[in-house]
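stuck on this one:
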Amino acid sequence: MGMLYAMFVMNKNDLISSIDELYSCFGGL
């Protein structure tokens, strides 16, 4: 259970950083 949660959190962070990179590409639209 703990590992599953950790994986979810890591994926969530990955998603957030990906969105952050997209924001940077578009100049923070």
About this structure: The longest helix spans residues 2-25.
